[in-house]
Amino acid sequence: MKPRNAFTLIELLVVVAIIALLLSIVLPSLRLAKRKAQTMMCKSNLRQWHIVFKMYTQEFNERFNEGWAGQAQKSNWWMDAGRQYYGNVAEIRCCPTATLPVNDLQGNANKGPGAGKQPFAAWGYSPGFFKDREDYGSYGMNGWIEDKPDEWVSDVQQRKKYWRTIIVPNPAQIPLITDAQWIDGWPEPTDSPPPFVNTIWNESGTSHFWRFVQNRHNNQQNMAYFDGSVNTIGLKKLWTLKWHRQFNTGGPWTLAGGAASAKWPAWMKNLQEF
Fold first, then answer.
1. In this structure, is residue 152 part of a structural domain?
2. Short-list 203, 266, 263, CA closest to 239
3. Domain range enclosing 234
4. Is the full-model pTM beyond 0.85?
5. Mind listing the pLDDT tens digit of every residue in the chain (274 residues)?
6. How many CA atoms lie within 13 A of 156 on its CB side?
7. For residues 38 and 96, is the Cβ–Cβ distance under 8 A?
8. Is residue 25 part of a domain?
């Protein structure tokens, strides 16, 4: 009898079954490790942004950049203001989970590789809009930090809300930069949460929290504060932070303000309350 030199069908099936079993055990661990690595990289990026703005404010008498001026070419957004300090490295403008821009290289809205992938998408490419640069990213600055000239803000009461300087009381409670769907935003305590986990921010919408509430890190997101600390926080906690000088941290979407789970959209109802 000739010696057997091939596997039988049964043996092959057993090997395939064993491999499939091992993969089912290993893959969840690999996915978890990847998510943890992305979270750590994201937090590292945000720490770098605090350093960038610390350097900027030291050079400009402890004052932040002016921000949106009402038209793109006269604006001084954080990406421009800090460019010389971060070397225009695009990667640190992006959370590692959201690197594909929603616009294409020609600036066509919702035609880029990230279109429809919110919250795992980046704002940007828009040539000519960001001072003739093709900026993109997936972080957003707290718009209330900006040192806007009075002539840019017609409402006198609104002017009083801006922080303007990095030298403020309780800096650990004030958001600086975080995961976001747009470059900045001006949230108010009454602003509603996004109705769906993948809600696409609409410029005509009234809630600026739609720009900031991004479920990229397992029902959490990363936040850098004025004091340089960086934390991963629950999404509902965003309403308890001191976004501007008059922001009510006990507003209607917080436990202190009587928020009930029934008020929240379905995808957020079971998240931790704050």
1. yes
2. 263
3. 10-268
4. yes
5. 556 566 676 767 777 777 777 766 766 666 767 788 899 999 999 999 999 999 999 999 999 999 988 777 778 899 989 999 999 888 999 999 999 999 888 878 889 999 989 999 999 877 777 766 778 999 999 999 999 999 999 999 999 999 999 999 999 999 999 999 999 999 999 999 999 998 988 776 789 999 999 999 999 999 999 999 999 999 999 999 999 999 999 999 999 998 877 789 999 999 999 9
6. 0
7. yes
8. yes
220 and 233 Cβ atoms separated by less than 8 Å: yes
Is residue 100 situated within a structural domain?
yes
Amino acid making up residue 94 = C
Q: In total, how many domains does the chain have? A: 1
The token duo for 91 is 């990667």
**Cα-atom radius of gyration of the chain, to the nearest Å?**
23
Q: Is residue 222 part of a domain?
A: yes
Question: Cα separation of 274 and 259, whole Å?
Answer: 9
Contacting residues for 113 by C-beta, under 8 A, at least 6 apart: 100, 101
3-class secondary-structure state, position 165: strand
CA dist 19 and 208 (Å) reads 48
Measured between alpha carbons, how far is 31 from 259 in angstroms, rounded to an integer?
A: 34
